[in-house]
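Q: Hi! First time asking for a complex rather than a single chain. Here are the components, and I think there are two in total. Is that enough to go on?
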Amino acid sequence: MKKIVIVGGGTGGTILANNLARRLAPELKASEVRITLLSASDKHMYQPGLLYVAFGRMSSQDLYQDQASLLAPSIVFHVDPVKTFDMDNNRVVTESGVSHDYDYLVICTGSRSNPESVPGLAEYANHVYTVEAAEQTFKSLQQFEGGRIVIVTGVPHKCPMVPLELTFMMHDYFRDRGILDKVEFYYTYPIGRLHSLENVGKWAQGEFDQMGINYETLFNVKEIDGQKRQVHSEEGSIVDYDLLISVPPHNGMPVILENALGAGGWIPTNPATLQMEGREKVFVLGDTTNIPISKAGSTAHYEAEALGENLAALIRQGSMVRIYDGKVFCFIEAGKDRATYASFDYKNPPQPQPPTQMIHWFKLAYNKLYWNSVRGLL
Amino acid sequence: MGTPKQVDARNSFCPGPLMELIAAMKMAEVGDELEILSSDKGSANDIPEWINKVGHALLESYEEAGIYHIRVRKTK
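A: Yes, that's all I need. Here is the structure of the assembled complex.
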């Protein structure tokens, strides 16, 4: 029997497991293949929904479904996260002490926000990367009666559209409350334009100029002086704030660091095959890779589709059939009721179109369709 | 002096070469040398601009076969 072990039950791991269950249905039925998914939680969170929680437009309960309910019945699922990766012996050992041998291993443990890595950020800045933080951000926005809102972005971070989306959505939120004239926005960004993607940055600059949103680029947050309500940048700027909104820096998961699989918790990964560098039978998906690509659910989704095809081919014919081309598709909320998108790959940059209400509606629909997506139905 | 740690940001639109370099510099020690590889023409300008603004040492910048090589030493 060929054994595939998937470590991590987020977007990438769940889509991959279901994809393989569909592709390898005959082999699973004949007990020639076993797919095991090991996760840290019995719940699955729709992480992009956190942005909407921060504006009171989704509740935290809307973000979760039972992980088991998302998986094909043929998948063996355990809530028992991996503690040790013993790759020389093709096995992993879980926190409960169970050893799982594998023929192919897929690591997709994800990333976590790490506001504690910047002095003062955890204490004084709001963010939207946990349920508690998103709910607190909504409270902070509700209580805000005017002043200067500063947006800071750490490096690296998950979902590169969030700094822009937060800014656009706050703009419309305060317009609806009738206090937009009392709010000054000051958007900062680590590189020399408003977004990583050059074309998205150009588009955002036009929107910001029209909305009267101020900005400073080449601004990497160094520390927060909560007493003086000031942000200090690595580049020497000091910016005053009344309300501080952050996209915190992210790290890979502790188990990746504890097993010395990659600096920062990011595993060195081949961008085309998604194989871990130096390990033919180990693959990496989603945020966990060190590939210079967006850390986003969309990335994990497209990677999982490619890897599912390759793992099925490896089982059946002993060779891979497809390369991952770097495909990513990201919605960009441009306010409360309009949106655009960025679609790109390793070779082709995005060409964002003017935002429309229809794309916003499609994004809202996708917030529900996600559950079919991870089940492998989309 | 050892071989500089290489940051391969070829074919990266998002987060892009400069963001990759900033992330790598955060993990580096003062005195470490890094070399970033980029296929983005804009990197030849915006990476040195950031290095100079933040105060690290720009050691070398050149283009070879369409790939931009920029070498930097972390100074603080």
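A: The two ends of chain A are 29 Å apart (CA to CA). Let me know if you'd like any chain examined more closely.
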